[in-house]
Amino acid sequence: DGEAVPVDGIIAVIGEKGADYKKLLQAEDSTAEKPVASKSAEVKAEHKDEGKPAEETTRYTHTDNEEKVQDASSTSDADGRIKASPLAKKLAEEKGLNIQDIKGSGDHGRIVKRDVEEFKPSEKPAEKRTEKAAGAPAMPAVVGEERYEDKAVSQMRKTIAKRLAESKFSAPHFYLTMEINMDNAIAARKSINEYASVKISFNDLVLKAAAVALRQHPKVNVAWMGDKMRYNQHVHIGVAVAVEEGLLTPVIRFADSKSLSHISAEVKDLAQRAKDKKLQPKDWEGSTFSISNLGMFGIDEFTAIINPPNACILAVGGIKEMAIVKDGQLVPGNIMKVTLSCDHRAVDGAVGSAFLQTLKGFLEDPVRILI
With left for phi above 0 and alpha for psi between -120 and 50, is residue 18 left, alpha or beta? Predict the structure, then answer.
């Protein structure tokens, strides 16, 4: 239970009680095993290039006798060079060690691979330190451990991954970003919350404004159905909610007809039930448009992947105080960036832009939402 079975794999054996089913499983396992190459074949593979020069074959073949092979071609100290095998020199270079500081244990004091591997920089003889090394700061030894943990992917995560991959790679996305001055929305929210029984959030304002804007722009409230286009005459908005195992999108149905207080209470209820894993399929199915808000996490702007079968999703960033030009004067203002992701098969740039213009007008003058 809860595990995956490969295609054509056995999930059950049906038979009489007491029958020896283990032989069937063992037979299945034996046919699935791949033949292992024999030792003689490996030996033949190693000596395949036997006729080539020694330096060419030893370069790519690593054996237990590699050190001896490399030692055979080591240089002498007749010309003043350090006696070390090429393998030891290369290893010291890779480790950033000075070969002169390593004491050799091979024939006639030759430095071999083992000496480099066992050498510790702290054991470097003081008499061999150069003036440059002596003046360098001592670097502390850093001890670390590489660790990781593999966890099985949950069914929810698998479903999210499958749906988003299908959306991203089948629907041709394009993105429209717009800045919205939220000064009036901030003042309106403050005034509304003085009288409202349920506290209204900026996300509630955006959701209501988007719902009313969709009513005016029905060509955005659509779905691509392959051989036909579905023009939804109702407005059901999905609101992305982060949960422990991924992302759920509960739906606010007929959002354009609901008050801000109603929307706020419903969003809070659905978000809490999503986190408590109490949502039912009917709670997240049937959206015609989606909104994803990461402004509360300090995100200025982002692009979201369309939630199929919707044709659009609105990505909402945080409200940021910044300098803006108003009536030719530089004044402080509160700016929020929104990005509309569109499925170009169903929605064109001009259609998406007109929707954003209407949304901008509603949020910059919230009284218009009530008209």
Answer: left
Sequence-separated (6 or more) residues with CB below 8 Å from residue 315: 292, 293, 294, 301, 302, 303, 304, 338, 339, 340, 341
Distance CA 190, CA 184 (A): 10
Indicate the burial class of 14 (C-beta count within 10 angstroms; 0-12, 13-18, 19 or more). exposed
Q: Which of 70-84, 150-164, 342-356 has the lowest mean pLDDT?
A: 70-84
Residues carrying an active site annotation: 344, 348
Query: Rounded to whole angstroms, how far apart are CA atoms 217 and 359?
Result: 10
Report the amino acid identity of residue 12.
A
Q: Which two tokens stand for residue 22?
A: 């283990």
Tell me the one-letter amino acid at 67.
E
Joined together, the tokens standing for residue 4 give: 């995956």
Judge if pTM exceeds 0.70.
no
Tokens of 81: 């060079």
The whole-number pLDDT of residue 41 equals 45
Partners of 186 in beta bridges? none
Instruction: List, in order, residues 6 or more apart from 355 with CB less than 8 Å away.
Output: 213, 214, 217, 220, 312, 340
Q: Which two tokens stand for residue 94?
A: 């890779």
Give pLDDT, residue 243. Answer: 86
3-state secondary structure at position 5: coil
Beta strand extents in 134-254 (DSSP E only)? 173-181, 222-224, 229-231, 237-239, 241-243, 246-248, 251-252
Determine how β-strand 241-243 pairs with β-strand 222-224.
Answer: unpaired
Contact (CB, 8 A) for 321 and 146: no
**Whats the size of the chain, residue-wise?**
371
Pick from 217, 237, 355: which is nearest to 293 by CA? 237
Question: Is 8 exposed, middle or buried, given 0-12, 13-18 or 19+ CB atoms closer than 10 A?
Answer: exposed
